[in-house]
Specification:
Layout (H helix, E strand, L loop, with lengths): L1 H15 L3 E7 L20 E5 L5 E4 L1 H4 L4 E5 L5 E10 L4 E5 L10 E2 L10 E6 L7 E12 L10 E4 L11 E3 L4 E9 L7 E5 H14 L5 E2 L2 E5 L2 H7 L7 E6 L4 H5 L6 E5 L2 E2 L3 H9 L6 E8 L2 E8 L1 E2 L21 E5 L2 H7 L7 E6 L4 H4 L7 E5 L2 E2 L3 H9 L7 E7 L2 E7 L4
Parallel strand pairs: 7-12
Antiparallel strand pairs: 1-2, 1-4, 2-3, 3-6, 4-5, 5-6, 8-9, 8-11, 9-10, 10-13, 11-12, 12-13, 14-21, 15-16, 16-17, 17-18, 17-19, 19-20, 22-23, 23-24, 24-25, 24-26, 26-27
Length: about 425
């Protein structure tokens, strides 16, 4: 049995290696450059790529290509060719190249990354440290990895198959010889922790780069943040059971469809939304003009909205804020009317609300990230436009109650829960 397994793996290695190439980006002075980025610094100045069709299209990582417009490609038979860049997508760290070989090239078969299971065997092929056609065997250690802070749209496959500098852009195969991922990153201070972009995501990007030379994504137009336990309690949902809308941008699709600040988005086209990253990724997979069915919870009631998406702007507004560590403490706030002097001092964009003029050290407000110049525009889902309204609304909270604030900082709004009132 072990010999049969060994035979399967060796045959798989021989079958897959011809579709994997070595890449050397060419600088303006004609020399190979070192790979950019912190993900997988290539000491040899090289990376890997995967031939995706017989015509010579090659997928690799965007950070392997960098700013180069031409790349030297070395095939498995040692043939050297020059590729030019068809298009790049920094948001997924993918790039598409094209070589003209004068003959059909051996290409890889893509598999369905949604069928990947933790524990299944995988094969990574690439050129670590310039060592051509290196094959390593391992298992899938995890799926759906996000918040790695490597790209905008993260849904990585984690593997312990040995991945080293130079493997960037190379394929991750299943035992059927199908590509289930494009290797993109390692954790430098760890062993056996590598990440691959799922093949389904790669296929979508490749199709758009082939058709348009760029990737066009849908745009909803909301600011969002994770649902902490305190926020979830305030909005009547379970922790992680959606994402909280803290801002709706004027004239964008969400605003036109009736989405409001304080809505909790729980599903998009029937798919559960449990993190800001997933919401961004789901919307990003939809084309501009597509109508997304968005399920929200508003005032404890479910609501279905059909939202026609527009094209995501080149420099989208920051749409999420980090989760901030919570501490048990008093509120620790001083607020004042938004006078002309304070508006000028803190460069406030609007006057409706009360201005935080002091945050006590070591207070709960400080721990929640509040700071001088923040404008409080809601307390417990009630708009406040004056100091009297702020104090009146706060006074309705009983001792020990948590207080929900909606705060405007420069052009960005967000929610904060202050756990208790002394």
């Amino acid at each position: 049995m072990l010999e049969e397994i060994q035979t399967v793996i060796t045959e798989l290695a021989e079958e897959t290696k011809p579709s994997v190439v070595n890449l050397f980006p060419i600088t303006s002075v004609g020399r190979s450059r070192e790979g950019s980025g912190e993900r997988m610094p290539n000491a040899s100045g090289s990376g890997s790529g995967l031939i995706v069709d017989s015509e010579g299209h090659i997928v690799t990582n965007n950070h392997v290509v960098g700013d180069a417009t031409e790349i030297e490609v070395r095939l498995s038979d040692k043939t050297k060719l020059i590729a030019h860049v068809i298009g790049k997508d920094p948001d997924t760290d993918l790039a598409l190249l094209k070589v003209s070989a004068g003959r059909p090239l051996t290409s890889a078969r893509f598999g369905d990354s949604t069928s990947v299971k933790v524990g299944q065997w995988v094969l990574a092929v690439g050129n670590p440290f310039g060592l051509d056609q290196t094959v390593t065997l391992g298992v899938v250690s995890g799926i759906g990895r996000e918040n790695i802070n490597l790209s905008r749209y993260e849904n990585f496959i984690q593997t312990d198959a040995s991945i080293n500098p130079g493997n960037s852009g190379g394929p991750l195969f299943n035992l059927r010889g199908e590509v289930i991922g494009i290797n993109t990153a390692i954790i430098n201070f760890a062993q056996g922790i590598g990440f691959a972009i799922p093949s389904n995501m790669a296929k979508q990007v490749i199709e758009q780069l082939l058709a348009k030379g760029k990737v066009v994504r849908g745009w909803l137009g909301v600011g969002i943040q994770p649902l902490t336990a305190e926020l979830a309690k305030k909005f009547g949902v379970t922790e992680g059971g959606g994402v909280l809308v803290n801002e709706v941008f004027e004239k964008d699709p969400a605003a036109l469809a009736g989405i409001q600040p304080g809505d909790v988005i729980v599903r998009i086209n029937g798919v559960l939304v449990d993190s800001p990253n997933r919401l961004s990724r789901l919307i990003g997979t939809l084309a501009p003009g597509a109508t997304s069915r968005i399920e929200v919870v508003r005032d404890l009631k479910p609501l279905l909205l059909d939202v026609p998406l527009t094209e995501r702007p080149d420099s989208p507004v920051l749409t999420s804020i980090p989760r901030i560590e919570k501490l048990e403490s008093k509120l620790g706030l001083e607020v004042q009317e938004s006078t002309a002097n304070l508006i000028e001092k803190f460069k406030l964009r609007q006057s409706k609300g009360v201005v935080i003029t002091k945050v006590e050290p070591n207070s709960l407000a400080q721990a929640e990230g509040l700071r001088e110049g923040d404008l409080v525009i809601e307390v417990n889902r009630t708009e406040v436009s004056s100091l009297m309204e702020f104090r009146s609304t706060i006074s309705q909270s009983r001792r020990g109650d948590a207080v929900l604030l909606r705060v405007l900082r420069e052009t960005r709004a967000f929610y904060v829960v202050l756990k208790s009132i002394d």
